[in-house]
Design a protein that fits this description.
This protein is of the alpha/beta class. The protein contains five helices and seven strands; from the N terminus they run E-E-E-H-E-H-E-E-H-E-H-H. The protein has two domains: about 1-105, HUPs (Rossmann fold, 3-Layer(aba) Sandwich); about 105-140. This is LysR substrate-binding domain-containing protein.
Length: about 150
Amino acid sequence: MLLVALLPPAQKGRRQHIRAEFIAQAYDFFELMKNKAERYGVKVTCTHLYTHNIARSISLLAQEMLCMGVLLFVREGQGVLLETEEIKHLLTQRELSMYIIRLESFRNRLTQSFTLFTTWLGELFKEPFFFSSRAFHEAREDGHGKG
C-alpha cells in the first residue's frame, strides 16, 4: 500500500512555505497507518508530495508506482482526506481504477457510541440502564420500586 501525504505549499509573499503542522500531521498519519497495516500483514510505503495540483499529482504518482487503484473516502457526500472537487476530478480520470469508500456518518457513529456506552453502564450495574416507563410503574406496583 502506498500512503501519500499531499502537502500544498502555502503562498506567503513570493516564497512558498510548507506549514510545520502539515508535516507533523503527515508523520502522525503515517505512523498510525503503519501500525494498523502491520497488524494485518500489509506492507506500506510512505511518501510526501509537495504540489499545487493534487488530483493530477495523485494520478501521475499512481501510474508511476503501478498502483492497482486509488481509494477515495467520502462521508455524507463530502470528501474526506481530499476536497470534494479533487475527488470529482479524479473520478473523471480513465487511466486508473478509483474506489470510493463511503464512511459512516457522524450521526450514526454517535448513536452507536451512545448505545455502546449505555450497554456498558448496564453491564457495570448488572441491570438495564434504560428501561421503559411501564417497567418502572410495574416495579412500583409490586413494591420493588422506590417511591
